[in-house]
């Protein structure tokens, strides 16, 4: 019986620790500029970790293929909408696109097709804040 009481006491201690941590987090949230900087720093670390796990992953490749098709192959537009890319990534992204073209996973767009896609994206952007990569049933897919 004493052992059970000890376990119950440990559970109570855990609950107390949670209450203290929770109360402490409330104070940290309202502690001012230092707390805000710390939260921003932690958030930045989390973004860096997510980016490191994403870049070069099969998920990035799949997203890049979707963006390629959505953007009519226009690399500048792809970079604009890519979650973790900027102009410095152009060569890396072009290499992936070239590999997918060679495997015939994607097709090369004509200039007219690319311009039509760019115009369509601009219209989507005017209507919404972001483009929808998961929209597989685009109107132009039937053409």
Structural features, described:
This protein has helices at about 1-30, 35-55, 60-70, 75-80, 90-100, 110-125. The longest helix has 28 residues, at about 1-30. The protein has six helices and no strands. Mean pLDDT is about 80; it is low at about 10-25 and about 135-143. The chain has about 140 residues and is mainly alpha-helical. It is globular.
Write the layout of secondary structure elements.
Layout: H1 2-29, H2 33-54, H3 58-70, H4 75-81, H5 90-102, H6 111-127
Helix pairs in contact: 3-4, 3-5
Instruction: Note poorly predicted spans.
Output: 10-25, 137-143
Give a count of the beta strands, DSSP E runs of length 2 or more: 0
- Rg from Cα: 25 Å
The global form is globular
Number of helices: 6
Mean pLDDT: 79
Query: Could you give the distance between the termini?
Result: 77 Å
Task: Indicate the percent of residues in helices.
Answer: 55-70%
Proportion of residues in β-strands: under 5%
**Secondary structure category:** mainly alpha
* Elements, N to C (H/E): HHHHHH
Main pleated-sheet profile: none
In a few lines, what is going on in this structure?
With 143 residues, this protein is mainly α. Helices cover 70% and strands 0% of the residues.
Structural features:
single chain, 143 residues, disordered C terminus, globular, mainly alpha, 6 helices
């Amino acid at each position: 019986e004493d052992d059970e009481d000890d376990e119950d006491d440990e559970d109570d201690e855990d609950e107390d620790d949670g209450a203290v941590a929770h109360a402490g987090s409330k104070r940290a949230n309202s502690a001012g500029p230092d707390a805000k900087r710390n939260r921003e720093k932690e958030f930045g670390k989390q973004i860096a970790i997510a980016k490191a796990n994403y870049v070069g992953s099969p998920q990035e490749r799949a997203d890049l293929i979707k963006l390629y098709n959505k953007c009519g192959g226009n690399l500048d537009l792809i970079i604009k909408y890519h979650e973790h890319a900027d102009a410095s990534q152009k060569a890396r992204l072009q290499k992936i696109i070239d590999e997918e073209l060679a495997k015939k996973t994607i097709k090369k767009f004509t200039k007219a097709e690319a311009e039509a896609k760019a115009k369509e994206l601009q219209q989507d952007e005017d209507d919404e804040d972001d483009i929808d990569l998961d929209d597989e049933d685009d109107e132009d897919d039937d053409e």
